[in-house]
Each structure stands twice: as C-alpha cells, then as structure tokens.
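Readers of this paper often ask what the protein records in our data store actually look like. Below, we set out a record of this kind in full and without editing:
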Amino acid sequence: MASERSGGTAPATSAPVSSPISDDTPEPAGPDSRLALLLARHGGATDTWIREALTASEVTPRQAVVLMYLDGGQLGQRDLGARLRVDPSVLVTLLNALEDRDLVRRRRDPADRRRHIVEITEAGTAAVTKLDTAIGHVEDELFADLTPQERDTLHSFLARVRTTYDGACDA
C-alpha cells in the first residue's frame, strides 16, 4: 500500500529507512489523512474492480443495482428512480438497455395508466444470482484484511455517509 502511494516499488530488503523527521516529530499530514480523499481513492479502485467483475455479464454497476432492487419485487418507475437517485431520463436509458436484454419488463399500472410498473424477468433473476456472486468475490478480496465485525462496522458507517451533494460546500 505504501509503495502504491509513493508511486514506486517496495524495497527489496527490510532494512530501516532513515527519515529526516525524528521519532518524536509528528508525521506531516498528507492526502491519506483526509478521509474524503481516502474514500474517493478507494471508491475509484472499487468501481474498477466491480466493473471488471461484471464484464462477463455485460451489465454496468448501475444496471446491476437496478436488477438488485427489482429482485425484491416490482416497483413503480418513479419509486425506482428515487431509490437510485437518478434523473428520470437516466433511468429510462438504464431500463431500455435492461429491457432490450429481457432482464426487466415495464408495463402500465392497470389501476393508474399514467404509472409504469417495472419488474424483473426470469432472465433478470438469474443474472442477479451471477452478479451477486461476482460482487461477493470483489468484496472478499477488497475486505480480506477485515474481520466480519469490522465489515459490519464499515457498512454501518458508510450507510450513514451523505452522498447527495446539495451545493452547500464553501470550497
């Protein structure tokens, strides 16, 4: 990990490296001391790993999320868009691609013809099983150094992190 940050390769020996900073001087704060930058770097790496894992299924991470939401049962198109936090036009693009591959189906709500119901197909359900396995392999590799309790704690923390930007940053 340290060699990744420095851009070089790890030294061949384990001899101590001399530092101009004495042992009692605190190490200077760098980008890894900033939680947002650390999260962004790890998020980028995770995104790459997930995209590679999903390559065989020809499904994007966003499409995988759509399928996983629908695996829990049919949803109204607006409800699905709200859960995904995407613009309706983006959702239509996602659903068109999934519908073209017979992974989801859209139909009018018989009780309200203005409303569309989105449901997963049998092929979509089979795809979710494969996607879930592929993402599980990524998670196993990514979190190999964490105990199950640490994984649960990380999940709990990340679930509480705000991810909707409201433009309120003063930066």
